[in-house]
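Reminder to self: C-alpha cells first, then the designed residues, so the page reads top to bottom the way the pipeline ran.
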C-alpha cells in the first residue's frame, strides 16, 4: 500500500493532506488559507484517489490554487498513490468577505525560481524544498548513493557522468536527486538546473512537437548546467521520446555537464529501452539504493519526529521500524498516522495504541509470498532459467534448484502438495514430498548447502532482492 490512509475512512485522506500542508507552510498560512477548506475524496477507476478541494469564495480558490497548488498537488500525489487534485468553490460555508485576505505574505517555501522563459520554468517547478541532504539519513543501504549524490552536487566538473540511481520505490532516489538540485541552487544560484520526471520530459517534448517548436526544446539542453531526470523507466516503449532523450543526454555529455538519472531498475534491466540508450545510461556510475535495515529505519523515524518536534516513546518507534520494512515512504505514512492520532487524542501513544492505529497498515505489510516469486528468486540464485522450474530436465544443475524451490514453496506458502506439484510442470505430489525430504537430508549433512537454503528463505521472507546490490563503486 502506498498511503497512510487508504484503508480508513475517506475523510482521513483530507486530514492527512491538511496535516502535511500545516507542516509545509506553517501555522500562519495554514490558518489563513486552509482551515476553511474542505475536501472530498473519490476513487478513480485505476485505484488512485482524487481529491476535490472546496474553498468558500472564488477569490480564495484562485489564490490557493495559484499560490499553493503545486505543493498541494505534490503532497496529495504522495499521500494518495498519484491522485489528482481539483479546486472548486463551495459556498456558502462561511460568510463571504470574512475570509478575503489582505496583505498575504507569500509562502516561505516556493518552488525554485521561475525564469522569464516559461518553457524553462516549466522544467523546474517540481523541487520540494524538504528533500535536502540534511534531511537524508545515511546508513549502509544508501551510503554509496548518498556520497555519489553529494559529489555530483559539490563538484564543479561532472565527475561521473551520468550518475544513475536505481532501486525500488520509496527508497530515496527522488529525495537524493532533489537534494542535488537544491544544494546546487543554494550554492550557485546562477546555475541552470533542470529537474523533471521522465513523464514531464515526454510531456514537454510532445507539446513541442505539437507546437512545431522542437528546436527550442533541443536548445534547452544546450544552455543548462545540470539535468536531472527522475523515473526514466516511464519512457520505455516510447520511441520518439527515447530518441529525443538520447539526444538530450548526448548534448549534455558532450558539453561536460552533469546528468543525474534514476529508474526502478539498473539500466541494463530496463524493459523496452533501446540498447544504445541503455549503454549511455550505464556509461557513468550506476548505484543501487538498497532496502533499508532496521537501524536505518529507526534512525529515520527518530530524525523525523525530532524535526517535527514531537516526542514518541522509543518503544513505539522501534515497533514501527520493526514492522514496516518495505520502504521509507510507507514508514513515513505509518509515522504520520501515529502523529495525527497523538494530536487528535492529545496524548502520547502507547505501544498498544500504536498497534491498534496501524492495524490495517500492518496487515497489508504482512507479506504473502507466491510460488512465482519463489521460482524466480531461486532461479536467479542458482543462475538457471525460470522455465527450468517447470521443465522436464533432470540434470542435477536444474533438478536441485527445482527441489529447493519446492521445499521453499512448502515452507513459505499455504499451498498444498498437489498444488505445488502442479506449479512445477504438472508434477505429482509425491515428487514434492521427495523434494522436501531430499532438501532436509542435504541440509543436515552439508552445512554450506543448509546456509544457502536458509539465506534464500530469509531473503524471500524479508522481500529482499539479491539484484538490488550496488552495481559499481
Ligand atoms: P523513491 O524516489 O526512491 O521512490 P523517495 O525519494 O520519494 O523514494 O522517498 C520516499 C520518502 O521517503 C520521501 O518522503 C523521502 O523523503 C523519504 N526518505 C527516503 N529515504 C530517506 C532517508 N534515507 N532519510 C530520510 N528520508 C528518506
Ligand atoms: Mg521517486
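Designed residues (473 positions):
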Amino acid at each position: 500500500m502506498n498511503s497512510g490512509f487508504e484503508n480508513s475512512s475517506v475523510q482521513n485522506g483530507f486530514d492527512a493532506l491538511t496535516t502535511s500542508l500545516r507542516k509545509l507552510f506553517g501555522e500562519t498560512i495554514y490558518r489563513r488559507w486552509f482551515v476553511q477548506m474542505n475536501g472530498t475524496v473519490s476513487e478513480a477507476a485505476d485505484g488512485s484517489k482524487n481529491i476535490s478541494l472546496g474553498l468558500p469564495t472564488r477569490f480564495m480558490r484562485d489564490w490557493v490554487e495559484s499560490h499553493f497548488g503545486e505543493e498541494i498537488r505534490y503532497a496529495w500525489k504522495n499521500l494518495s498513490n498519484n491522485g489528482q487534485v481539483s479546486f472548486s468553490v463551495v459556498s456558502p460555508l462561511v460568510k463571504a468577505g470574512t475570509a478575503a485576505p489582505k496583505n498575504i505574505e507569500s509562502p516561505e517555501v516556493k518552488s525554485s525560481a521561475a525564469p522569464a522563459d516559461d518553457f524553462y520554468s516549466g522544467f523546474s517547478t517540481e523541487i520540494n524544498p524538504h528533500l535536502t541532504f540534511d534531511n537524508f539519513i545515511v546508513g549502509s543501504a544508501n551510503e554509496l548513493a548518498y556520497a555519489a549524490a553529494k559529489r555530483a552536487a559539490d563538484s564543479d566538473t561532472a565527475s561521473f557522468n551520468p550518475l544513475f540511481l536505481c532501486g525500488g520505490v520509496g527508497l530515496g532516489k527522488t529525495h537524493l536527486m532533489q537534494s542535488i538540485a537544491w544544494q546546487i541552487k543554494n550554492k550557485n544560484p546562477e546555475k541552470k538546473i533542470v529537474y523533471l520526471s521522465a513523464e514531464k520530459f515526454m510531456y514537454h517534448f510532445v507539446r513541442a512537437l505539437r507546437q512545431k517548436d522542437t528546436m527550442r526544446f533541443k536548445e534547452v539542453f544546450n544552455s543548462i548546467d545540470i539535468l536531472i531526470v527522475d523515473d526514466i523507466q516511464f519512457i520505455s516503449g516510447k520511441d520518439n521520446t527515447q530518441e529525443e532523450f538520447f539526444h538530450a543526454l548526448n548534448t549534455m555529455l558532450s558539453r561536460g555537464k552533469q546528468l543525474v538519472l534514476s529508474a526502478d531498475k539498473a539500466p541494463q534491466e530496463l524493459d523496452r529501452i533501446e540498447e544504445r540508450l541503455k549503454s549511455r545510461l550505464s556509461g557513468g556510475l550506476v548505484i543501487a539504493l538498497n532496502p533499508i535495515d532496521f537501524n536505518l529505519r529507526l534512525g529515520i523515524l527518530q530524525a523525523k519526529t525530532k524535526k517535527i518536534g514531537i516526542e514518541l516513546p522509543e518503544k513505539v518507534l522501534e515497533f514501527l521500524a520493526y514492522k514496516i520494512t518495505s520502504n521509507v515512504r510507507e514508514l513515513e505514512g505509518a509515522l504520520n498516522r501515529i502523529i495525527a492520532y497523538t494530536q487528535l487524542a492529545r496524548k502520547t501513544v502507547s505501544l498498544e495504541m500504536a498497534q491498534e492505529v496501524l492495524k490495517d497498515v500492518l496487515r497489508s505489510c504482512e507479506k504473502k509470498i507466491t510460488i512465482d516469486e519463489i521460482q524466480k528468486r531461486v532461479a536467479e540464485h542458482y543462475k538457471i532459467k525460470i522455465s527450468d522450474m517447470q521443465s522436464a530436465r533432470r540434470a542435477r544443475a536444474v533438478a536441485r534448484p527445482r527441489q529447493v524451490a519446492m521445499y521453499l514453496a512448502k515452507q513459505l506458502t499455504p499451498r498444498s502438495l498437489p498444488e505445488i506439484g502442479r506449479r512445477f510442470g504438472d508434477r505429482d505430489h509425491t515428487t514434492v514430498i521427495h523434494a522436501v525430504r531430499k532438501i532436509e537430508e542435504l541440509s543436515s549433512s552439508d552445512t554450506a548447502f543448509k546456509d544457502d537454503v536458509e539465506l534464500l528463505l530469509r531473503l524471500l521472507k524479508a522481500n529482499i532482492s539479491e539484484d538490488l546490490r550496488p552495481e559499481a563503486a
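Residues 6-10, 92-122, 465-473 have pLDDT under 50 and may be disordered.
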